[in-house]
Structures are given as structure tokens and as C-alpha cells.
Design a protein that fits this description.
Length: about 280
Amino acid sequence: MKLRKVTAASAVVLALAVSATACGSGKKSGGSSGGGKTIAIGIKFDQPGIGQKTPQGYSGFDIDVAKYVAKKLGYNEDQIEWKESKSADRETMLQRGDVQFIAASYSITPKREEKVDFAGPYLLAHQDVLVRADDDSIKSPADLNNKKLCSVTGSTSAQNVKDKLAPKANLQQYPTYSACLTGLQNKAVDALTTDDSILAGYASQSQFKGKFKLGGFKMTNENYGIGVKKGSDLKAKINKALEEMVADGSWKKAVEANFGPANYKYEPAPKIGDVKS
């Protein structure tokens, strides 16, 4: 009799434990197919116009794209868990399942495609330069010869210019793009180089409006894609969402809202799967 009572009590405890575990699991981020109560999305925290964390929240073109995609996947904005995705960490974050997808000025390359899958592309950017608005001396990449060309420490952008287009460029490495902008404004450097979308985002900040301009040189193609874990069925769903974003005008609205103040001559929305070399 005692044994049966103990067994019954144990069964009740076990049932409660299982029930609690099941309830708790609903709070986790959605899996590869989504469907959880939250979704973890990787973005940049420090790129104005692209992805930026501010006291007011998160803003930028990638943020707008991510919100749209999340909505199509069944998540409202308050169900999104934003996670900073630094360039060197992106593949690892996807492989570990830290995030369901990453929208962070993430260029599609063959090397990266060995580790993760990409939806998109959703933006075709190009390496370009930013110069002072009143400087008419830099009209082509060759004009960067004997000029002080700034980029961030560890970036290959400035070196690409020196190796291929302006061998006499005087490379200057600064810790951040913001530091380069200050140097450009103070005439410590003559130009800043990276993706034109990133440059447009910085130049669109209220404190810099009208002070800088893009060269429009289109020195490389940078196909921005949304990274997902290798083999994830989210890829097809995100591609469908991106197509709908273009079709209903939301894509164009997001581009102009985030890059417009810099007079960014953006490319038309790329076709899904059309990666320009």
C-alpha cells in the first residue's frame, strides 16, 4: 500500500516537471523553421544607415529588412531578439544556432558559402570612396594617388585600392569609420573607402549632412545576403519574403529612408540568386 502511494506521488511530480519543461521551451528562439515565441537575429550595432543600436532602439536598412522578413515568418517586432554580429563571428553564430539568421552587410562569397547558406542577395553594394563635399580633385580612383586614403584597421578595402587602382595612395588606418570621418572632416585624410552603402549610412547622419559626397566609382561588387545555418529551410522562406518586400515597395522605401540624405545612387533590387562577381 505504501509503495503504491509513493509511486503515485512520484508520477505526479514527474508529470509536473515534464509540463514545466514543455512550457519553458516555448520561450526559446524559433528553430530553423521559426515558430517559437521569439526569433534571434544577428545585426551590426555600429553601422549607421545599415545596423545601429541607439538609445532609442535599432535602426538601419538591414534592420528594416530583418523586421520585414521576421514579420513574414510570423514574428512581430517585440518578438525579435537582436544580437550583435561582428564580422569575424557571423559564421560561428549561425553554426552554433545563436541566431536564426543574420542581416549585417554580409557579402555573399564562395568561401563563406562553404560554411553557411545565403538568402538573397537583397542589396548590391560597391566599394567606393567618401570625400569632402567641396573637394573636386578626386574624380576617379587614379586621383587617389598621393592622397591620404583612410580605412579601418584590418580592412582590405584601402589595400585593394593601392594594389589595383592607385599604387601611390598613402594608406591611413584608423580604429573606426567614425574616426576616419573625423579625419576627413578635419582634412587629416583626403578620402575614406569601404562599401558605398556603409559610406552613405555614415554620411546620412544629421551631423554630417551636406559635408561629404560619394565618389560613385563602383570598384567592386558586394552582394549582401541574409545568412542562415547550412541546410536551413529558412533560406527559401526568406527568399520569398525578400521578393515580396521588393514587390510591395517596402524595399525601395527602406533604401531611400536610410541612404537618401547622402544622395546614394543605389542599384535596383537584385534578383534572388543573382550574385554579381
